[in-house]
Structures are given as structure tokens and as C-alpha cells.
Amino acid sequence: MANLTITEVSKKYNIKPDTLRYYERIGLIPKVPRQSNGNRYYNEGLQGWIEMIVCLRHSDVPVEKLVDYAEMLNQGDSTLDAREELLKEQLAELEQRKSNLNRSIKRLKHKISLYDSGEIKKGKSYFEEYKIMDD
Amino acid sequence: MANLTITEVSKKYNIKPDTLRYYERIGLIPKVPRQSNGNRYYNEGLQGWIEMIVCLRHSDVPVEKLVDYAEMLNQGDSTLDAREELLKEQLAELEQRKSNLNRSIKRLKHKISLYDSGEIKKGKSYFEEYKIMDD
DNA sequence: TCTTGACCTTGAGTTAACTCCAAGTAGTAC
DNA sequence: GTACTACTTGGAGTTAACTCAAGGTCAAGA
């Protein structure tokens, strides 16, 4: 795992260079070290952090929360408790999201089964379809 | 289950009246019937449809997709296959989302356990913390 | 009669998270 | 020296999904 340029990181994590620069600008990623020509290079630590960000962003953890976390990291040990608290809040949020998701998945599967079984047929209106859709 | 006014529906599904009117404007909800004074009233069928929308929106199914579905409903039986297809696509999308979510949840839980066990201690930098965070 | 409150309309404003643009530089290839 | 490519910057533009504001109608109650 070596130092990578911005495009290499961009490919590795499937995220645009512009987004990486944007994350840096807003303080989600700390000052990235530069080569003599001014180009960024991303070391192991940064890559790990970016992987974490990308993972959590795929679950729509707000950028703002991640920035808060990053800022607390910079402030050192005085923020240990607050950091853990933030992680726990986000976890709770994701668990909630998961239960919503399960409800939606169940609903969609049910509805698809109605299409498959032919129970939803010609000319149904919103109202008529609803009668069937509402389990 | 009787006819409800816009604020009643708004309370029932925890969604703002403005949002309900917005949904109607963009064709996600069909023309809502009016009382003599011009006020909307929502009948059973509409309420069922709104419940469906709210459920799927909690899982971030795009409004645009729901509008597509609503428009196809209006077009009748010729769109049966396309409607089922749309539902299947959204289902696949949600399943994907769920697996992302599980990954994030696992990650957060792991990280929290590191805080709890005291393995993340004073003065860790991004880099140092990453070493621990990366399982 | 006056006021309050719930509703209406059109159209504009907001927010999050990118995403793109123009103009410039640094390094390599011929 | 002239392309060509990969980067740099600051700032503007985009998109989705609301969300609000201004001004108007109407019915019920003091």
C-alpha cells in the first residue's frame, strides 16, 4: 500500500477527484501532503480514512457528521467521549434506516407478487389498486 | 377510514401539507377532490397511495421513480409490465442499499467497541487511528 | 361586523453534496 | 520548443426534494 495520486485514489475508491478535493476543502480530509510540484499524494493513513468515509457515505451518513468527527479527532483526547457519542448516534440512525428499508422491501416484494400472480390487472385506478396493495 | 383534510393527512403520515401539495403538483398524487370551498379532501384510496409513498420515501426511493409509476398507472394496462419492472428495479436498489448499510453498521460497531475497550486513546492522529480502525 | 384560523395559489428560496469550468503550471516525449 | 497530460486553483453551477412567503378566499365565533 503505497502513496497514491489523486486519480489513483479516485479509481481505487470510485470517487471523483473533484470530490476528494471538495472533502479536503470542507475539512473532512485533513491537509493532504504534496509532492514538489504541488500535486497531492495520499499515504496509507489517508487512504484508510477515505475508505471509511466512502463506506459511511454509501449509507448516507451526512458529510457534516463526518466533518464533526474529523474536527474532534484533530482536537485530541478531550473529545474522546463526544466522538464515541457521535458514532453511537450514527449507528442508531443506520439501524433505524435499516428497519425502514426492511419495511419497504417487504412492501415491494408483496406488490411484485401481486403483479406476478396477475391480481393486478387491466384498468385498475389508484383506488382499486390500493385495495390490493394495502396488505 | 373517512375522508380527511390536508392537515389531517399531514398529521396521520407525519408529512407537511406543503409536501402533499408539492406531490400533487408534480403528479405523484393525482388530482385530489375538493369540497365546495375548494379545500382538498383525501379519500381512502388516496390515503393508501400516500402511505405507500411515505413508506418508500423513508427508504429514499426517488420521487421521480414514484412519479413514473404513478404516470404509468394512469396509462392503464399497457404499462403493466413496465410497472412491474420498475418495482423490481427499486427492490434491487433497496437490497443493495441494505448490504451497504450492513457494512457500515458493522464498521461503526467495531469502531465503537474500540472506544469502549479503551484501545483508542489519547492523541491518536488520523493515521494512528486508521491503523486500528481498519479491521 | 370584525377577527381568527384553515385552507388556497403561484412562485421563489433553501439545503446538501457534489460537479464542473476556466485558466494556469509542471513534467515528460519528441 | 512544442505538444500532451496530469495536475493545480477559486468560484460558479447543478440536482433533488422540499419549504416557505405573499397575498387571497371563506366560514365560524365574540
Automatic annotation (TrEMBL), chains A, B:
- Domain HTH merR-type, chain residue ranges per copy: 3-44
Asked if RNA-binding is a keyword of the record, the answer is no
Judging by the UniProt lineage, the source's domain of life is Bacteria
Q: Which Pfam families match?
A: MerR
What sections of the sequence does the record tag as coiled-coil?
A: 77-111
* Keyword annotations: Coiled coil, DNA-binding
Q: Which CDD domains match?
A: HTH_YyaN
Name by which UniProt lists this protein: MerR family transcriptional regulator
